[in-house]
Write a structure and sequence with these properties.
Number of domains: 1
Helix content: under 10%
Distance between the termini: 51 Å
Structural class: mainly beta
Strand content: 35-45%
Largest sheet: 6 strands, mixed
Radius of gyration: 17 Å
Number of strands: 6
Length: about 110
């Protein structure tokens, strides 16, 4: 490295907005109605080395269980001053155990799209 030049490691805080597939036997909400996961997202703050690009795969954790998510898009949210990274659960289906890992992990919050 040339004299006087420094190498910086930059990390960025982003919000992950994760879409998961519906299960065959759907989870129920607090009123006993089936949850349609096409209308909700699981959200979590995460520090990443750079803003992920669409098509990239992220390795994420939920209740100490690792899983993969495909990045769909990353948008700057002006009002909150951060990037929101929209991801899709990498597998076509999700087991009840995998779903429970999200539902019971305090770092992941289920939010309706509306």
């Amino acid at each position: 490295m040339a004299a006087g030049l420094r190498r910086y490691t930059i990390s960025v805080d982003v919000e992950i907005s994760l879409r998961i597939p519906n299960m065959k036997v759907r989870a129920l909400d607090e009123h006993g109605y089936p949850i349609d996961h096409s209308t909700v997202r699981f959200k979590k703050m995460l520090t990443v080395p750079s803003i992920p690009k669409p098509g990239e795969t992220l390795s994420l954790l939920s209740s100490d269980r690792a899983f993969e998510a495909k990045v769909v898009r990353a948008d700057w949210h002006e009002g909150r001053g951060l990037f929101v990274v929209a991801c899709q659960y990498a597998n076509r289906s999700i087991s009840q155990d995998e779903y429970a890992a999200f539902a019971h992990d305090p770092e992941w919050e289920m939010k309706p799209l509306i």
